[in-house]
Design goal:
The protein is an all-alpha fold and about 150 residues long. The chain folds into 2 domains: about 1-50, no CATH class; about 55-140, lambda repressor-like DNA-binding domains (434 Repressor (Amino-terminal Domain), Orthogonal Bundle). The chain has 6 helices and no strands. Helix 1 runs antiparallel to helix 2.
């Protein structure tokens, strides 16, 4: 098949579908065709998709939709349990450094896209003034301990 610069969203979608098929097959995963399609798709994405306005979880959800991935497939890609993926996608668990690196590597994006503060819906974090703005989990220490 002859590939050209992507000029429309329908062409972009077709190329993403073709790329997804090629990557699934171990025989074509490392081919020049995959490399070319990846370059074309990345060029179109960099010019047409604005991920920086989304928080990291919205970005992950948009990328999952764009790449036709479900939570189970994402758990395999990131080598995390389905429960952990569910907690992340539902704002109950923050993204670890390793998860951020793996997401950036898989989607071929800068780590900064995923390494931004966002509000967690975690009961423990609600007790801390600034924790709702961070993607980290706080632990509660005993206040009555001698110093």
């Amino acid at each position: 098949m002859e590939y050209k610069i992507i000029k429309s969203s329908s062409q972009y979608e077709a190329y993403c579908n073709k790329l997804h098929e090629l990557v699934k097959d171990p025989l074509t995963r490392e081919s020049d065709e995959v490399e070319l399609l990846t370059l074309l798709v990345e060029k179109w994405e960099s010019e047409n998709i604005r991920l920086s306005v989304l928080n990291p979880i919205e970005t992950i959800k948009a990328l999952m939709k764009e790449h036709k991935l479900n939570a189970s497939e994402l758990s395999e890609i990131l080598n995390l349990s389905k429960g952990t993926i569910s907690k992340m996608l539902n704002y109950s668990k923050g993204l670890s450094k390793e998860t951020i690196r793996n997401l950036a590597s898989y989607f071929k994006l800068n780590q900064e896209v995923f390494n931004q503060p966002y509000k967690l819906e975690n009961e423990i974090n609600r007790k801390f003034k600034d924790a709702s703005l961070m993607n980290t989990k706080k632990t509660i220490s005993n206040i009555n301990q001698p110093v």
